[in-house]
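Please describe what follows:
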Amino acid sequence: MNVLRLQRISLRFGGVRALDDLSFTVEPGTVHALIGPNGAGKSSCFNVISGHYHPDDGSVSFGDEDITQLSPHQIARRGVGRAFQNIALSAHETVLDNLMVARHRLTRSGFVATSLGLPRVRHEERRHRERVMEIARFVGLGEKFDRPAGALAYGDRKRVELARALSSEPELLLLDEPAAGMPTHEKWEIAHLVVSVRDALGISVLLVEHDMPMVMAIADRVTVLDFGRRIADGTPTEVQRSPEVIAAYLGSSPGPEEPENAAARRTRSETS
């Protein structure tokens, strides 16, 4: 199992510093939460890790390899999967077909062999279909393989998004607000599912989530961002006691810097 390390990452958009000398480590086999107020830089951090943004300074490594300048598909091939906050499924395709898309990086058969329909190609496709059906059952979609993804309820579409990320067989899974927009009982179902991903599949999870009770219940470690900087890193208990974290979430007493900080946070929210 590989360790994910961010070392002194800085990212700028014009005059706005979205990430500021950010460092943290995600240990193998853990649920690691990345939290912070709106505009703190969480999405920018995910985009750097997954290769959608390249930082101005610093490095990202996964295991012994520097992945800082790799493209998203190259990083995916190294075993980093991602489920997005905004659901991006093929609405008219079945659940099974949506999941099969994620198996592309694991397919060994070439174009010619696939075009000829050779027996080994059919065998490989059957094996991939069986595996994604296992994953669909794991996330609670066992009876919905053949239904169009767009016909599913919102909570089930979020599960398809998660299942598609799992179908690429990642070693590290990036989850961007997996429980967003769900009622309370479904949020806790997703929380238990995230823990099962760690425990049953042995996958490391880096999680962005605004539901603090959920985060504090399932995370092994928490990193807190504010204005692109790391202001706390530790166990859920340690983070909850941090004065800087309390100030970032609840606000501190008014001072001469407050108007500038408020404007800066609005700008960060638009760019992160």
Summary: Strands lie at 4-13, 16-26, 31-35, 57-62, 65-66, 80-83, 172-176, 204-208, 221-226, 229-234. The first helix runs from residue 42 to 49. The chain has eleven helices and ten strands.
